[in-house]
Amino acid sequence: MIDARARGRGRSLKAQGVAERSRDVEVDVCARVPRRCDLHEARPVTATVVDDAVTVVVQPIAGFFDRPGAIPLDRLGRGHGDNRYENRWFDDHARLAVVVDYLSRGFAHGPVGTPGCTGEQGHQTSDRDSSRHPAGTIAEVAYNAGAMMQAINEAKEAVADRVGKADVAMVLGSGLGDYANGLEGARAIPYGEIPRMPLSSVSGHAGNLVVGEAAGKRIVAMQGRTHLYEGHSPGEVAFGVRLMAMLGAETLIVTNAAGGISGSLEVGSLMAITDQLNLTGVSSLVGPNDRQMGPRFPDMTEAFDPALIEVAGRVATQLGFELARGVYAGLLGPAYETPAEVRMLRTLGADAVGMSTVLEVLAARHMGLRVLGISCISNLAAGLSGGPLSHEEVKDTAGRVRSRFESLLSGVLESM
């Protein structure tokens, strides 16, 4: 891991009056131990400044590390929008690294590439066309309310003309993203084209912001989400929801695939979420509060709107099935829960369990959105199913209930 700072008691390049695109600027390049973030010896390196980033030749810093190959090439490549070296280890000291000068950007500094303090994230959209944005991103911003608002506004400005004024926002979880393709006039905007928007690496999450019409309403839908277990910060996990709220949405329909805990739930059941247990250990509201987004202490008595739950229940009855209701527990993941943990969750009052949703709902309620949550019970939780759990089972079940799920969503939109 490497961290570049302007020389002179940690002051940023901007603070020292260093102009963009300056050459032969001396910076301190430091090595850090992954996860622990321990600062090793800093050495001066001559660099070139381009748009608040510091470009350095890797050779002078190679000696900082305990062994060859200590820098994953994807950490270096992502800085200049080139992901060709993803998951390969550093083996060529002639490579160039682009290292974010966090202080010049106004973010809290942190080691490049570590969870919670990542550097610039590049998105390869084609062989000849790559887009680059510092979406890696909101890890630092989560602790800087002004910078978070700036990041969301950048994303909003990039998509506002294509989205227009949204009425309803949707987050479509594992295997459920196809619903967005059926919207009238659906247009997809890849997350990689949206400044600051974090990417999902999970199968079943397409990674598009889809805009279209349904029941006379303008819909903006996230076709896939990001998760804490991918290494994203709480602020990154909630970023898409905050963006959709800034685009005008006043209602959020959030969906997920979940493991069934309650004995009344069967594989393939749809469950309206009546309340949630945030057991991830973090919150998307941590850090200085920006009153433009919401109050410091938002009330969560009715995290999920009772009127919307009633609407969904009536629609399900009209469609010929019963919509279950229950409490959703959100855990960190990515391992599925143990049977002992499932027994604990049942004791705590959880009816279903998953690895998403709770931080998104916190952010949505913070910004005043009404929320409807729908879980697709894709499997029975560990110890209840009689066999091992798998992500393939989750996607297969979502595919089997797709028609019922889509009919429910369309009916809810028509009844709102």
Number of strands: 16
User: Quaternary state, please?
Assistant: single chain
What average pLDDT do the residues reach? 74
Q: Order of strands in the sheet with the most strands?
A: 1-2-3-4-5
> What percent of the residues sit in helical stretches (DSSP H or I)?
10-25%
Spatial gap, N to C terminus:
50 Å
CATH class of the largest domain: Alpha Beta
* CATH-defined superfamily of the largest domain: Nucleoside phosphorylase domain
Per CATH, which architecture of the largest domain? 3-Layer(aba) Sandwich
Write the layout of secondary structure elements.
Blueprint: E1 2-6, E2 25-32, E3 39-50, E4 53-57, H1 73-77, E5 96-100, H2 102-105, E6 121-124, E7 130-133, H3 138-141, H4 145-163, E8 168-172, E9 184-190, E10 208-214, E11 217-223, H5 234-237, H6 239-246, E12 251-260, E13 270-278, H7 306-319, E14 324-330, H8 339-348, E15 352-354, H9 358-366, E16 370-380, H10 391-400, H11 402-415
Parallel strand pairs: 8-11, 8-12, 12-16, 13-14, 14-15
Antiparallel strand pairs: 1-2, 2-3, 3-4, 4-5, 6-7, 9-10, 10-11, 12-15, 13-16
Tag the structure with descriptive keywords.
alpha/beta, Rossmann fold, 5-stranded antiparallel sheet, 5-stranded mixed beta barrel, disordered N terminus
Q: Can you characterise this structure?
A:
The chain has two domains: 2-133, no CATH class; 145-415, Nucleoside phosphorylase domain (Rossmann fold), CATH 3.40.50. It is 24% helix and 26% strand. The protein contains eleven helices and 16 strands. The strands form three sheets. The chain has a five-stranded antiparallel beta sheet. The protein has a five-stranded mixed beta barrel with strand order 12-15-14-13-16. Helix 4 (145-163) packs across helix 6 (239-246) and helix 6 (239-246) packs parallel to helix 9 (358-366).
